[in-house]
Amino acid sequence: MYALHTGELVTMLRGHYNNVDCCEFHPDYQELYSGGKDCNILAWVPVLRSPEEEEEVDNTKNNSAGGTSLNPAFQDAWSSDED
């Protein structure tokens, strides 16, 4: 997996025993599916991680304002001028 904006290698996904032929990302579930020449289809699900110290401070501020401390991948980033 590579970082979208920098192209930096983030991690290697290992699981197929041969080359990967296709990938599909499901944005609603934050899952990646891959199919390979080994005749397997794998589902790659993100691991929910505990917030880092900086994020913990931000979440404490958000929680006092009625926010929740969710993994950023699952937070709604949409905003409205009416709020």
From TrEMBL:
**Which Pfam families does the entry mention?**
WD40
Annotated InterPro entries: Rad28/ERCC8/Ckn1/ATCSA-1, WD40/YVTN_repeat-like_dom_sf, WD40_repeat_dom_sf, WD40_rpt
The UniProt entry annotates WD repeats at: 13-44
What SMART domains does the record point to? WD40 (SM00320)
Q: Which domain of life is it from?
A: Eukaryota
GO BP annotations, alphabetical order: proteasome-mediated ubiquitin-dependent protein catabolic process; protein polyubiquitination; transcription-coupled nucleotide-excision repair
Stretches for region Disordered: 53-83
Bias regions of kind Polar residues — which residues?
Answer: 60-72
Under PROSITE patterns, the record lists:
WD_REPEATS_2, WD_REPEATS_REGION
Q: Does the keyword Calcium apply?
A: no
Keywords assigned by UniProt?
WD repeat
Entry protein name = Uncharacterized protein
**Single GO cellular component term:** Cul4A-RING E3 ubiquitin ligase complex
